Each structure stands twice: as structure tokens, then as C-alpha cells.
Amino acid sequence: MADDDDDGVVAVEDRLFRNARCPCTDPRAIKIAVIVAEPNKTPFVTAFLAGARQAASDRGLPLHTWSNDVFSPTAQALAILRAVDLGFTNVIAQLSSSSLSSPPMRTIRSLQGQAVSFASVISGEQFLGDAAVRPVFHVGPDNRVVGARAASHLLATLPAYANSTVCLNQVATLSSHDLRCQGWIATMRGAGLSSGQVVAQNLSGQVADLVHDGVTAIYATGTIAADVIQAVRSLGANTTIVIPTEMQERVAKEMALPNSLVPFLVDTQPYLQGYLSVALMYALRLTRSRLATTMLQTGPRLITSVDANAIGNAARQDAGFPMCTGSALCWDRSHWRIEWVHGAPDNAFWAEARSGIILAAREAGVQVREYLPAAPTDSSTAAHVASIPSTNLIGVGIAADASLSATRAIVGNATWQVPVVSVHNDLSMVQSASAYDVNVFMPDYGSGAMAGDLIASGGFAHVTCLYDGAGFNGTRGVSALRDRCLGVVDRLTLLRVTADYAFLSDPLDETLYASAMAPFIASGTDLFVAPGVDMVDYAINVLQGTGRFGLGQGKISGACWQATPSALTAMGQGNWFFAVDQNAFLQGYLPNVLMLVRAITGGNELVFDTNLTESVSPPRTIHAGPTFITTATPDYAYRAACSAAMTGPDVPAGDVDVNQIPMQSIAWPVCRLVPAGQDMAEVEHQLDDVTMGLAIATSIIASLIILAALGCIIRYRRTRAVRSVSVRFTCVICILSCLLTGSAIQLAWESTVTMCVIRMSWFPMLVVTILSTIFAKNLRMLRIFSAVGTETSNVVAVNDTTVARHVLMLATGMAVIITAGMLASPPEISTMELDRTSTSIVVDKYCTYDVYMLTSLAVYFGGIVVASVIVSLRSWWIPREFNETRSLSIAQYAIFFTSTVIIPTSMFVVTSPTLSFVMSFTSLEVVTVMVVLCLTLPRIVYARKPDAGPLTGAKLRQSFRSGRNLLETDNAGAGNHNDPFTNTGDHETEKDMEIAHMRLQLYTLRSENLALKKRLRIATSSASSGQPDEWSADPPAAADRYRVAEPQ
């Protein structure tokens, strides 16, 4: 579905990154306004707006910016109202005053409750805890800290210049500048030194007066520092230094001089403030969530003369860090690379986090690669981290357990000179957390304590936390799940609420949950807490089985970490209390944004504070969670649908860009913006001409071989060798096999829903019918020869009707499974990207079927195969001259090998459509031809022997007489009249008689020879009456003893 716009651009669903349960979000629907109070004729505002506009451009967002020539609170208030009237409901504003009564603050407060989201930037950090304003975040420095940091560094490095200092306030009454001066002056006075503030007006005259008065250091709060430096230079003074705020090219050049007036500067990184604030507002609105850390400090960053890149970075910042090629001031992002190292389980949390990684990568226009080991270990993860090349590398993301000490050691010693971000891990208990530049995670113990507060407010009396372990361990930092339980129980115990643990030795073993939870259900637990994402579904299943699942008196409810679809569904039904959202998507999304901006700006630092009640926390930390989702949370149902994501096949280590990773479903899909009528063409992968030609030739040759075998069977159908098997069923197998080999080429045809239904109906039915026919024929042979030598009443008669009945029963069972599966869950078409150009994408479409139907088919087919193998083993002893048992056995073994080895192997090459087709097609053709040849070739060879004439009545009578005479002679000589097949006499005599007896029995089982059966009945009747028939003049005493059952 495409949404039209007036500019001729449409939003279309991305065919490669979509979610069947969640419509894609048109980025143009997220309208962001940026209102800056700083005067717009400064390098600071230029760099800030450049970052904001680049972030909006990368994401296709409508961006409205406003700044004024001079600072005017009234004009800023009017600009906020104007932006909201234009439909920009996400406002990022520099809150210019510390007073709630200022015009901008009165305007913001008046818009509360009108579906407008506000965030502060540059200044306004003091309002984060104000319930009347409630900004969703603040991106920028703590301005008081900026001034204090500059003063502290001067005191530490150049104390002689700290004796008499002044803070030169560029814009008085603008809170960012006022607070910087307050921090500077307070630090200097705290050191026992004098300092004061001067409001910048007549700059050259003011600087001259300050120098004349003996001021040793002038701290400039804004970009007027360049003019201050020029004024001091013009006076020829060498006793006064200048401490600038904000990086500029003129300042960087001054700092590089041998007799520089600038020993260092403090930078608040305006480009980072602009880019990060817009990207973060967009991500929060996309996911309809909030960050637990609401203040993201972008400074102060100290820059000294030893920074070799200062001049180049300053020049690029003054130019707005343009993204282009062919200029020294421009960045070409296409070669940049971010590496992600995953050492965590592949579950709902990581699927959602990877969705964030992929979206940020696509927006950034850089390469992002993933290392996804099947079974990560400390050593293997560390080895991969050590092998990451530094060429074009701009950042590394580590999504591995905090316990991987070797990995941390490698990171700490790496020489990449790029930021390393740790994701998801609560590193508050890890001593070597300094190995990471930034940590993005949710504090586990702290989130547990906050969850305990919410549980207590819900009035629950007895709470049980599902504990990861066979016994209790009160040490924090052992595992995330244990820390969450510890936080919950510790807080509830403090609040005098009964709380305990249900121990699970293996949280991934579903069978343990019922027995672990049962005692607590019996003892009155009214709330179970599932701290792990894999625990949620298992706990819900147990609670549903109690008949008391829900909220209220006498009910048992639950709470969990990670807002899984099942938890949110139960919440919507009124059965689940809350879900702790870790913001997995943002944990994957934000690191990529931060690493990109760091690369653009040439070395920004990210210093984040912590506003959660965590006793110990490393520096530079973003707490993505916890946020708590209940039925009162806006859009919780929407989150249930859009947060779900599933990963595709594992990716080889370090050699695949995330844009090429197949995703079955992605969380929070975003529409693509393309010119109307010029959507990127989707080209389906086609087999090359050589492969297709070879496949067609193979199919024709295989079919001709089978038809030739069928012709020979018909040609020699009256010979003893061919008539010793069922001609009709052999012909049926040949015809079905020919259909199979001839239609196998459809595996190369385009995958549509109709074609998926045809394939799932056609191929399994043909294969099972062939296998069932072989199995039934083999079973008949076993039953016949198992009866040799038994009394008449025990001889088993198995004719073609019985075989047909067995085949029909087995084929019908397969048809029922396929039909029921198709009706319950029709097949779907999945798309996997294979290649991408600027105008098109090459994809492979393949069928996906319901897992329960596939499992049922596998079990059913496997049962037939196993039964066939058992029958083959039991019938291997039967002589081969007049039966097909061994040939049938070889055919069954070929099918067994294909189903257990070849087919599973082809599933591992799904990412290579050509290889997958070649394996499936070739195995189908070869095995089918092998089966037919096993059934027919030995018969045809025997039929062409000189003594392999038709099985006539005379030959049969001669064989029978020979066997009978041998039997009588042996019995007379030995004086033993017992059954010859159980005596201990001459074994050769027994063998000959057995062969004769089997020949007669096989012959009488040919239901198609009605005339012969009639003659056999006459012969039997004549023998009973004592009169000879035309077969023999001898009395049929021996024949009576071994009379075969009459065919039905």
C-alpha cells in the first residue's frame, strides 16, 4: 500500500523489512520541530542545525527549524505555537529560562495534554524532574558542569592563570550561558580565588578593560571566544589567556600556535546535540516508548593543543559536516563499517534489538556487519573481536554476557581507536566496565526494585519470582535474571510483602515449570514474576491450566520482563499485571546512531548521567529501561503487534552486511519513500540458462529411463522372472516415478501461494504413494514366505487387493494431514534479499508452511520409512530367484538416506537458491531412478536369460512333482513322517522342496490368472475324491499336506 504526497513521493512497504502484524510507519508522519533560542548568526547554531537536518534527511522526516537573529523569549514562544499549528507535534526546544513563568515555559505548559511531545536541547536540563513540563528527554550538557569543568581544568593545569578570572557571558538571561558562568564562578570561589561575570556588549572595549585590570583568564560562554582572542591579540597582551566554549576553526588554529592564548577549550558538541535529539525523538515516536535515562549529556568535552585533528574537525563543523564526496570537508559514509558481536541467545529480545540495528544501519548509509555464532563461548567471542580489522571501522557493538572476561580484555586492549558500545548487560557489578566507551542497558537489580514498588501498589499479598538456578545465590552480578529477582524480593521484603523464589534449574525446559510453580500456587501465591523473556510463555501456560488466571480476588496473575506478544495479549484480556520494557529496539538502534555521529564529527565524546536508584553504575551509561507497560499505557496493543520480530538464518561470522540478512519479520517496520511510479524494482532470482538447461535435460533423461524400464516390464510380463513379482504394481510405481521426475522442474518455477499448495500436495503424495506401494509389496512377500512350512490353517493369503488396500490407507493418511494443514494455515511467501543495486533488488521467494503440519508430515513419513526398513531387514533372508524383496529393500534404503541426509542438508543452504535447487532436484531425480531400477532391472536381466521362459503348467507340474518325490523319498528313508521343514534330515532335500513349494504358492497368488485358479480348484477337488486329474496320475497325499490357501 502506498500513500501519496503532494511532492510526488510515496511511502511504500519495504518488501524486505516488514511485519505482517504491523503496518509500516510513514516517516513523514513523525513531524519534528526544532526551536532554538540561541542567536542564529553563530557557528554553534549552524553546527546544531546541520546535525538536526542531517538526522531528518537520513530518515525522511519533515523538519521545521526556527531561530532568531537575537535572543527573544516572546518570539520563541510564538514559534512553538506556530509549529504546533502546522502539525509538528514533536517539539525539541531550547528552554531558555529557568523560570516557569517565562513566555516559552508558559506556552509549553499550556500545550500539555494535547498530544504534543516536548524535549529540551542545549539548555533546559533543570526541567527534567518537573511534572508540569515533563520533557521526554534532554540532549545537551549540564551547563553548570560545563563552566565548572573549565575552571577545574584551569586550576589543575595552569593555576598561575587562575588568580583573577572573569566569565564573559555572551547572552545574559539565556539559561545556558547564565549557568556556565555560575559553574565557573562557584568553582573558582570554592578554591578561594576571586572571579566575576561580565555581560558581553562592547566586546573590544570590555576586553581591553579586563586586560588592563590584570585579569589573567577570560572564560567565554559561547562562540564569541574567537572575537575575544582577536581583541587580546590586538592589545599585544601575553598575560591573559582565553578559555573558549565551543569548537571553531579560528579557535582551533589559535590553539595550534606556539604562543597560543588558548591552552584548551570546552566543547558541548552542537552537531551531536542536533543529530541525536532528532534521531532519538524519531525512535521514541516510532516505538511509542520512553527512555529511562532522560538526560543525555553531550559535554563538556575537553580539547587541547595535542588534538591533531582539531583544525580539520573544526573546519568541517563550521561547514556543517556535509555528507558528500570529492571535497576535504565532506564525509563519504558508504565505506564506513560498524561491527556487531553477538554472544547472546537468539530470542524475542535479541530479535527486536537486531531490528533496531538494521533500521539504524539503513538510515546511516554505512555497512553494519554481524557476528552470530551458534554456540558462543568466551574464547571464541574474544577471538573474533581480536580479528576485527580496523580499516574503515567506526564502531564496535558488543552484545555478549558481562561474564565474558576475555572479551572485555580484548576490547580494553584494542587499538581500533573507535568507540565500543556494550548492549543489554548490567555492567554495574563488573569492575572492568571501563573497557567500553558507552553502555546501553537496563539495570537489572534496579529494575527489580522498581517492579517491587509497582507490585506493592497493586495490593498483592504473596509474590513468587521464578529464579534462574537450582538453589539461592544472593550474590549480585551472577546473572541478569537472578538480579531482577533479587531486586523484586528485596524491595517487597522491605515493604513487608511476602516474597519468595521458585527455583528452575533450566529456565528453557518447559517441563519444569508446572512442578516448580505448583507448591506456591497451593500456598497462596497471587502473582508470579517471570524475569526472563523465555519464561513468559511457559509461566502463562501453567497459570492458564489452573483455571484461576487473572487479576482480582482468588486469581493468580503475572508480571514479566520484556513486553512479549503473549504477555501483552494476556494483559489485554485482563489477566496480566504488567511487563517491564527493556526497550530492546532502542538498545540496538541508539549505539549505531552514536557511533555514526562520532565518526562524522571526528571524535565526539558521549558522557551520560544516571537518574536511576542504582547503587553502583559505570560512567557513560544509557539506561534504555525499565519502563512499565500496563493496560493504562497508551498504545500497548500497538506495541504488542509491532514489537514482535523473528530472525532469519544465522549469518556467517563477520562477512555479511545486515542489509543482506534475511529477516522473517522485523519490529517497527518503516515505509520506504520513493518517487511516485519509481519504486525500486523487485527482481526475482532466476536460475541461469546453463543450470536450467541441465535440469531439463536431467528430467528428460530420468523420465526416459523409467519409461524404458516400464516398457521392458510390459515386454517380458509373461516370463517367469517378471511374473514372480506383481506386474501391475510395478507398472504403477514406474508411472508414478515418471510423473515425479517429469514434474520436478517446477521446483524452479516462481513461488506463489498456489504453487506452494501444488508442491506440498503433489510431491508428498507421489513420494508416499510410491513408498507405500514398495512397503506393501515387501510386506506381502514377508507374510507369504513367513508361512512356508506351516499347516494349511496358518498359511497367509495376500493378494493384490490387499496390497492396494494398504497403499490406499497410507496415501489417504498423508492426504488428510496435508488437507488439514492447508486449511488450518495456508502457506505463505517469504522473501530473502540476494543482491541490491541503486535501482533494483534481487530477491528469492520461497514457501513457508505451518510448522505443525510439517512436523506431522515428517513424523508420518518417517513412520512409513522406519516400518519399511524393519520389513526389509526381516525379509532379507528370502531367496531372490522368484521375489523382489532385496530389490525393494535397496529402494527403501535409498529413500531413507534421502529423507534423513540429503533433504535436511538442503535446508542449510537456503541462503543460496541455486545450490538449494540443485541439491533438491538432483536428489529427487537420482533417487527416483534408483528406486525404479532396483525394482525392474534385476527382473529384466533374469527375463532375458535363456532358461527364463514363460511359467507354463508343465514347468509348474514338473517342479511340484520333483519336490513331492524328493519329500516322499526322504521321509521313507528316514522313517520320519513329520513336517520336512522342521526335521533334522537332509537339508538339501528340504531346500528343494521349499523352493518348489514357494514356486507353487507364488503362482497360485496371481489373481489375474483366473483360469489357472479354476484349474487349481478342480485339481484340489479331484484329489479329495480320489480321482486323478490332468496334472498328475499320482495320489496327492503330499499335496494335501501342503495345500496352499485359495486366493480371495
From TrEMBL:
InterPro entries: GPCR3_GABA-B, GPCR_3_C, Peripla_BP_I, SBP_2_dom. Its main location: membrane. Residues 967-987, 1019-1048 are annotated as: Disordered. Residues 694-940 form the G-protein coupled receptors family 3 profile domain. It is found in: Membrane. It holds the Pfam family Peripla_BP_4. It is a multi-pass membrane protein. GO terms for cellular component: G protein-coupled receptor heterodimeric complex. GO terms for molecular function: G protein-coupled GABA receptor activity. Signal peptide: none annotated. This is G-protein coupled receptors family 3 profile domain-containing protein. It comes from Plasmodiophora brassicae.
